[in-house]
Design goal:
This protein is mostly beta strands and 274 residues long. It has one helix and 14 strands; from the N terminus they run αββββββββββββββ. A hairpin with a 2-residue loop joins strand 6 and strand 7.
C-alpha cells in the first residue's frame, strides 16, 4: 500500500488534465472519474453541458484501459445519452532513475456515438470538422506518447492519427473532415507540498497543455491552450479544474472553449497483480 501511494505522489505532476501520459496507473487498481464539461457554443454563445463518467483499470504495469459513457444537451435541450468509448494504452519503454524517468507508450481509442452529424439550432444547421471522440463523433484514433519526469517538472508530447466514422443511425454523407492528425505538448509542475512528510498531504499541481489538430481533408486546423490546477487528496482522490480555449485556427467547430471539472477516486489492490 505504501509503495503504491508513494508512486502516485512522486509522479503526481504527470496526471495531466487534458491528455494521458506514457505512465500507467498502479497495477491492480481501479479509478473512477466523473468528468463534466461546460461548452460555450459558437452559434449563440450559450452553454451546453456534457457529463462523462469514466472507469479505469490498471491491468498491469504496462497496460491500462479506460471505459467512458457520454451524455449532453449539446444537440437538444435536455441531457441525452450519446454513446461510449474504449481506450487502451501499452507502455513499451521505461528508463527510470531516482528523481526522473523517461517513458513511451502506444495508445488507441474507439468511440460509438449516436449524435446527429450536424447541429440544428435557430432554424439552421451548423457544421463541425473537428473530430471529437469524447461525445461528438464515432471513430478511432491511434498514437504514441512520450513523457519525461525531471524532479518536480513533467513534460509530455503525443501524436495520433484520428479517423471519423459515420455516427450511429446517420447515413448521409455531409462532407465533413474524416481524417486528422492530433498532437499535444503538456507540462506539469508539482507546486505543493514543498517537502513530503506523509502520504496524507494534499498535492497541488499546475498544468499548461497545448492541443492541436490538423485535418487531412484540407478542412483547416486548430491549436488550443488548456491551463489547469489539480488537487490530490490522501494520495487516492483528485480534483481537476481546467479551461481550454482556442489560441489559433481555421477549422469549423461547434465550440472553441470549455470549462472542465473532474473528480477522481482510486481503489488500490482491487484485483490480483500479475
Amino acid at each position: 500500500m505504501a509503495l503504491l501511494c508513494s508512486s502516485i505522489i512522486v509522479h503526481a505532476q504527470e496526471l495531466y488534465v487534458s491528455t494521458e501520459p506514457a505512465s500507467n496507473m498502479a497495477t491492480g487498481s481501479i479509478g473512477i472519474r466523473l468528468n463534466s464539461k461546460l461548452f460555450q457554443m459558437k452559434y449563440n454563445n450559450s452553454y451546453s453541458l456534457r457529463l462523462d463518467p469514466e472507469i479505469m483499470f490498471g491491468v498491469s504495469k504496462k497496460i491500462m484501459i479506460h471505459l467512458n459513457a457520454y451524455s449532453s444537451n449539446m444537440y437538444q435541450q435536455s441531457l441525452q445519452f450519446e454513446g461510449g468509448s474504449f481506450y487502451a494504452k501499452y507502455r513499451f519503454l521505461s528508463n527510470d532513475d531516482v528523481h526522473s524517468h523517461f517513458r513511451m507508450a502506444a495508445f488507441g481509442k474507439i468511440a460509438a456515438i449516436n449524435n446527429p452529424s450536424l447541429l440544428f439550432a435557430n432554424n439552421k444547421y451548423y457544421n463541425s470538422d473537428e473530430i471529437d471522440l469524447d461525445g461528438n463523433n464515432s471513430g478511432f484514433l491511434s498514437g504514441i506518447v512520450a513523457t519525461q519526469l525531471l524532479h518536480k517538472l513533467a513534460l509530455s508530447s503525443s501524436v495520433a492519427y484520428t479517423n471519423r466514422f459515420t455516427n450511429i443511425d446517420q447515413t448521409k454523407e455531409i462532407g465533413q473532415s474524416t481524417k486528422a492528425i492530433n498532437y499535444s505538448l503538456s507540462a506539469g509542475y508539482l507546486l505543493f507540498p514543498l517537502e513530503y512528510k506523509n502520504f496524507k498531504q494534499t498535492n497541488v499541481n499546475l498544468y499548461c497543455e497545448v492541443l492541436g489538430s490538423s485535418s487531412l481533408d484540407d478542412k483547416g486546423y486548430y491549436v488550443d491552450v488548456a491551463p489547469a490546477v489539480q488537487f490530490i487528496f490522501n494520495s487516492i482522490a483528485r480534483l481537476d479544474l481546467s479551461y481550454r480555449t482556442q489560441f489559433t485556427g481555421t477549422m469549423d467547430r461547434l465550440s472553441n472553449n470549455y470549462f472542465l471539472l473532474r473528480f477522481e477516486y482510486n481503489l488500490l489492490n482491487v484485483f490480483k497483480k500479475r
